[in-house]
């Protein structure tokens, strides 16, 4: 009876997670106790969350500052463990009252043996293959004891059965008394252990495969990082070579250029680092929880241990259900860094070393020189260039001229409605609608002002299919329904001429000479950039930011900058890119749906690839 009591106490001193004797036991507010190391592992599985879920009862427990050491210690349990360690274990095989101290423990017999009994035990033929553990190694924790399960209600009976419905082991007497009448499915404990070990092996195999999958992804990200890093090194090397051929006064310019290269690549590297960190965290998560689930040293025997094991298996299954890495995401991120180039000045101002630019995909001559008068993105993601000599030329994002439509119509401005109909403004300020598929002229009339009445006009179409026509001479904007007829609204432009108008969400962007204004549709100026010193052109990006182009017409240099909807500068996209200087100072900018920026002069179309 005393041995059975000791066995019960020993089982009570085991952590439900690791199944070993508690080490630094910490008690949760739900009253369940675990090793501090086990709680650290469980907390790590939940990332940066300060909550921990009890594996037994699944209650959510707050962990102060994510530090398990700050949880209260189970002092009573710790004291009991120390007392048990300090007690001698006596031989359970000797029948005398004055039993000698045990020196070994036989795993197969489940008994402690003194020196005499050990010697006798080792001579018996049937016991030669038994696993015998020295007491010194058991006390130090180097080895784990495989204990026989004894029924707590019937201490002399082994728990030879397992009830899947109750999730607990039971002796044969308990099965007959408590489980059979309830219709429970009862199996042999050995069968359950076999199923349990198979489940553990299956989890381990799946965890290894998942870990390998994410490790390959981490390796792939390292490759992408290295390629981006090589671009940075190459650009830096080129800059250094150019610097060495120049004079000492170039030091400041050199540092600016290197800083710009880093600025364009470090953001990409940071994104890749975040992807790598996320993947590595998943590997750590899988490793930690898989190690907890696939612990082979013991089989969970009591209800708490079984509940803990079920919870951990559920957490592992959630980790295994996570989607595999998306390689396309890292490729998209690294592509921007790999497109950075150092362009050295040759035959121009070589003392300035050069500049950092993004790769330019195409530089296309327009079919009719000097005729470009408008540009807008098409509903299917291409780019439409309207020509004053007649026609709308459609270009793909790689710069291919795919078709020319409305060749008989002289274009001043062009737009599209949500049903893909063309909206054409001609040189007499008349608006005409055409179908997209057959390019049929629709019988819809708009009462716009003539050039004599209103002056030259500009045009834009908003997301609600309202058509805006801005007149320079009378300094106002008329708003039309796509049904035609008279203007449904007029917006006065106080003290400025609407040279170019662009729809941006619930606002209009107005360019007047060298000033840009962002107004609401009641003509209230929200934000403005005044007297820029150059004639800009404006577009709205795919990300709903504002793109502004500065052209130094006299020397043929183009810069593209990105601004917020409050007209605050975000970044320089293109800096002083050399173009073929056109005769006419007339430019447009738009962004393809796929991300490329199209910049058009009267003679040529330039496509900047910014992915």
From TrEMBL:
<feature type="domain" description="B box-type">
    <location>
        <begin position="86"/>
        <end position="135"/>
    </location>
</feature>
<dbReference type="GO" id="GO:0005654">
    <property type="term" value="C:nucleoplasm"/>
</dbReference>
<feature type="domain" description="RING-type">
    <location>
        <begin position="15"/>
        <end position="58"/>
    </location>
</feature>
<keyword id="KW-0597">Phosphoprotein</keyword>
<protein>
    <submittedName>
        <fullName>Uncharacterized protein</fullName>
    </submittedName>
</protein>
<keyword id="KW-0479">Metal-binding</keyword>
<dbReference type="GO" id="GO:0061630">
    <property type="term" value="F:ubiquitin protein ligase activity"/>
</dbReference>
<dbReference type="GO" id="GO:0008270">
    <property type="term" value="F:zinc ion binding"/>
</dbReference>
<dbReference type="InterPro" id="IPR027370">
    <property type="entry name" value="Znf-RING_euk"/>
</dbReference>
<keyword id="KW-0862">Zinc</keyword>
<keyword id="KW-0863">Zinc-finger</keyword>
<dbReference type="InterPro" id="IPR000315">
    <property type="entry name" value="Znf_B-box"/>
</dbReference>
<feature type="domain" description="B box-type">
    <location>
        <begin position="146"/>
        <end position="189"/>
    </location>
</feature>
<dbReference type="InterPro" id="IPR001841">
    <property type="entry name" value="Znf_RING"/>
</dbReference>
<dbReference type="InterPro" id="IPR011042">
    <property type="entry name" value="6-blade_b-propeller_TolB-like"/>
</dbReference>
<dbReference type="InterPro" id="IPR013083">
    <property type="entry name" value="Znf_RING/FYVE/PHD"/>
</dbReference>
<dbReference type="Pfam" id="PF13445">
    <property type="entry name" value="zf-RING_UBOX"/>
</dbReference>
<dbReference type="InterPro" id="IPR047153">
    <property type="entry name" value="TRIM45/56/19-like"/>
</dbReference>
<dbReference type="InterPro" id="IPR017907">
    <property type="entry name" value="Znf_RING_CS"/>
</dbReference>
